[in-house]
Description:
45% of the residues lie in helices and 17% in strands. It is an alpha/beta fold. It is globular and about 80 Å long.
Amino acid sequence: MADQNTPDIVYTKVDEAPELASASLLPIIQSFASAAGISVGTKDISLAGRIISTFPEVLTDEQKQSDDLAWLGEWVKKPEANVIKLPNISASEPQLVAAVKELQEQGYALPDYPYSPSTDEEKAVRAKYDTIKGSAVNPVLREGNSDRRAAAAVKNYAQSNPHRMGEWTSDSKTRVASMSGGDFFSNEVSATLPKAATAKIVLETADGETVLKEGVSYPEGTVVDATYMSAKALDAFLAEEIEKTKAEGTLFSLHMKATMMKVSDPIIFGHAVKEWLKPVFEKYGAKMEELGVNPNGGLGALLERVKDEPEILKAIEEVRETRPPMYMVNSDKGITNLHVPSDVIIDASMPALIRDGGKGWGPDNAQHDTNCVIPDSSYAPVYDAAIEFFKANGKLDPATAGTVQNLGLMAQKAEEYGSHPTTFEIPSAGTVKMILDDGTVLHSHAVEAGDIWRSASARKAPIEDWVNLAIERQKATGYRAIFWLDANRAHDAELIACVKPILEAKGVADKFEIMAPREATVASLETITKGENTIAITGNVLRDYLTDLFPILELATSAKMLSIVKLMNGGGLFETGAGGSAPKHVQQLMEQNHLRWDSLGEFCALGESFKFYADQTGNEKARVLGEAVDIATQGILDENRSPSRKVGEPDNRDSHYWFARYWAQALAEQSTDAELKAHFEPIATALVASEAAIVGELSAAQGKAVDLGGYYHGDAVKTASVMRPSGTLNGIIG
């Protein structure tokens, strides 16, 4: 058994709903694992933990934390790595600022977030905070490619208990709008490097050359892209779509990824806020800038900054009256689509709208057809094709639908579009050049002030690993297998040139199809409508999008997905679904002491982690634990022990009791390991005999507001008290 500093299995400490659930579930996991001599320890990748570890110089010794993300970044490169990774906050600027404020109120002497840094000190602080924003965790941990699919038990349950789907009609006005030119898709160039190289990115203007980034290293065979979005084209597109939406009588909605694409998408979001309130910015822009307004932070932050300016508030209301109704995040509280950039994340918002028959919630608290504005046209065709498919064919039937599995290219920061330190808002007109160390100009774009330029890459080893994973998965399943690659897109054309020779060399080219995303979407929907199955083999962003889209259509949620990352150096990373960190669940818990988070994703990952540990170490007790987890998970589904959404009904904590009970019973009934059998027989007996007491204690805890000691940085003792309210259960588990 390893010590807690290097546990056998790392269980990540994260944020919001999954972290609250961990306070209840993790003690159960640790107790059961210890019977097999396995330590399960935590490493802190929460937003608050990452903030604290970034500023040790301003903290007391008691407040300081180790940089667990950096530790994990090295750990996942080792063959002994075994990590269960829960969803963490990918912080937008408003979330980061709120977390800093909470920590300051708790006595952490952190510097304020500099919105507009002017001094060197402020710029240094801003640079530190910017490393925490967006998808700062996943690129560090994902040293392997993604294998995401619905576990057989979960899929069987969804077919036997189909969720409600909204009705689609052929006359639905819902549509997807994206740019026809001037966007990232249309301006992309790509090249595969014949040898290792180091590049610098420069902006050449009439005033000289500015180095935007230097020392960017690439190994031989790396596919390197560069592109930009025209600010003028973006603004013209947004203005046109606002007017079209009004004429069509639909809701206006913007769907972005301001978390994963932490540099580019908040800027695009800010353009939408400015365009929506264009007359206000034209008249009061200078005054609002004085007040610290940054449109990239959203309408909510803007309104807070101008709350004492009646003239500006009146102008905002006057403009609102001329605009079409907006898609709402929370119509009861007046929170619009443009309030907070991290509130409407495309991979969750678009599938939910499609599942609901193309309807979005309007300011009148009713559902309406919607104009889904997705500015860049790289992946918008996926959602456009899905909407048109359901208009023509009607809703999907979850009771008979097949499944779409996904193999995603993401290892070693592949295709981290818009979030890399190689994404820039261009300060002045000129030419951006990507220059290699031998003087070769790899890529070049003429740009204007305000344009968003970005570069991303995918290395040769991850690409080859991705293709080989696809070959293995297709061979194991026999499913239809499609590479979602567009020969007319620069980056995808380079990938196709890598993919085809590998498939041909392995003699399996006839087992795979290559289609552009639009055609692949239609083919996949046709396949699952017939009750058949398919594998989507995609790049990083589509991996993210599709592992929400199809699970939400098939299962009603993406949180129940089995997500395995086979780390390239031999370890394993087991992600607990793709359900996000569920802030609304936390709000309900704090107000009503009811947590509706479903830990099914954690159960699925846990079973795989134990079985993988057995393969790693030869500890067969771990395999017995893992197989018993699978039985317990099936029990949760078969006996309908998942959490209810309503206060007063069973919640997350109840599901953990049943999971522990079914797990203990499976271990007590197995005959593979006599020692584990003997250990768990009395535990299983006690859990069954104490059902009434445990369920009663859990039920009695609900219905009242609770104090967690903080939202982003809760108090561990208070949280444990809330999440482990059954003294009877705690006494049995230990």
